[in-house]
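Key result, reporting period 2: structure in, sequence out.
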């Protein structure tokens, strides 16, 4: 029988259709926008504003040696790079000293370690912001490198758009062997589909500190990190969440505007990082929290109902049609997103990760809330 007349089966089918409608709202209303965006290369500008790149580093000597020169060699006429050496105990000081001799536009600020005083990354960022001499600030991490020597030109082009206060870019992860690396890159791409797509729909809610920019004057006008100063994470997404509007964000989706970072290499490192990021989401605006919780809830419910109805063979032709509809919608959008975010290798495996990720994220989110604040540090 194509459609069961059993009341329980009909109720389950109605719930399955409802979950599909919610999923379609996200995939077609938000994710499609980011996946099918057509970014162009930054237009040639006659005037390029001076800008300051701010990087916070704690025990990052190896990464600074590898990646900081890529930031210092940008094809940009007037900029400085401010690195805040935050209580490093490795040879970060020596590495930065050597680079300062080669690159006069590199500036270094120091935070000395004090056993009686602990602080979040936000203090290091605040010191870097105050040390910067230019109004346009660009943020990235010590383990990041620009994907192109024209990265800063892309930032300048985005800053020239009318009403722009915040510039949101994509921070990719470097491809390395292993399933964990692929999952991290998939999750990063999927999260970008969310925050770019929602920003395009007039609902910006976050950016990533690996590739973010805003004006120094805007930062102080909005009270800096404000009520989130005490939180270990959230120097990037919470600032954007608190201060972004439908009109004041510019988005960078050209491949030249991307940055690339080193992904966690062990599950323990990744879980710690993931929990830190999830803890910041508790402070998002209520509407943003609702949107971000509804999607994985609907996905988990969808897979649960789908499995139950297929096992029971209840209205299985209809259920199979609904499952294929979602699969095709998801596959088409993910395939295009893999091109937009330059992650073509991830398209096929992302179909599997779509099943795994909501369950894994829900588990980490619930255990993070139960664990509480703890005594974590930003590095």
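The corresponding designed sequence is given below.
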């Amino acid at each position: 029988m194509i459609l069961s007349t059993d009341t329980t089966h009909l109720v389950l089918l109605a719930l399955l259709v409802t979950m599909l409608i919610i999923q379609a709202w996200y995939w077609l209303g938000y994710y499609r926008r980011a996946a099918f965006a057509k970014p162009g290369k930054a237009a040639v500008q006659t005037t390029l504003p001076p800008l300051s790149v701010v990087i916070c580093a704690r025990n990052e000597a190896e990464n600074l040696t590898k990646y900081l020169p890529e930031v210092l060699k940008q094809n940009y006429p007037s900029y400085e790079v401010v690195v805040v050496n935050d209580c490093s105990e490795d040879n970060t000081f020596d590495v930065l000293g050597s680079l300062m001799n080669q690159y006069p536009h590199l500036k270094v600020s120091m935070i000395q370690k004090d056993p009686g005083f602990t602080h979040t990354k936000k203090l290091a960022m605040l010191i870097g912001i105050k040390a910067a001499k230019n109004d346009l600030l660009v943020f990235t991490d010590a383990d990041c490198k620009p994907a192109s020597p024209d990265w800063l030109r892309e930032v300048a082009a985005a800053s020239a758009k009318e009403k722009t206060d915040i510039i949101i870019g994509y921070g990719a992860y470097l491809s390395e062997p292993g399933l964990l690396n692929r999952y991290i890159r998939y999750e990063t791409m999927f999260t970008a589909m969310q925050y770019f797509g929602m920003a395009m729909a007039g609902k910006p809610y976050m950016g990533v500190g690996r590739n973010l920019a805003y004006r120094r004057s805007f930062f102080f006008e909005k009270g800096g990190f404000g009520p989130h100063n005490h939180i270990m994470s959230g120097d990037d997404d919470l600032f954007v969440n608190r201060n972004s509007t439908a009109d004041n964000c510019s988005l960078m989706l050209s491949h030249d505007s991307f940055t690339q970072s080193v992904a966690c290499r062990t599950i323990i490192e990744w879980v710690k990082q993931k929990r830190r990021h999830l803890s910041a989401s508790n402070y998002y605006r209520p509407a943003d929290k609702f949107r971000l919780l509804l999607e994985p809830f609907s996905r988990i419910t969808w897979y649960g109902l789908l499995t139950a109805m297929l096992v029971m063979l209840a209205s299985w032709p209809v259920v199979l049609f609904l499952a294929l509809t979602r699969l095709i919608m998801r596959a088409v959008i993910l395939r295009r997103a893999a091109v937009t975010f330059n992650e073509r290798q991830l398209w096929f495996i992302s179909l599997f990760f779509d099943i795994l990720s909501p369950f894994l994220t829900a588990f980490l989110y619930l255990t993070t809330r139960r664990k509480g604040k703890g005594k974590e540090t930003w590095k």
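Strands lie at 51-57, 79-86, 106-111, 136-141, 144-146, 166-168, 171-173, 212-215, 249-251, 259-261. The two ends are 59 Å apart (CA to CA). This case is discussed further under Risks and Mitigation.
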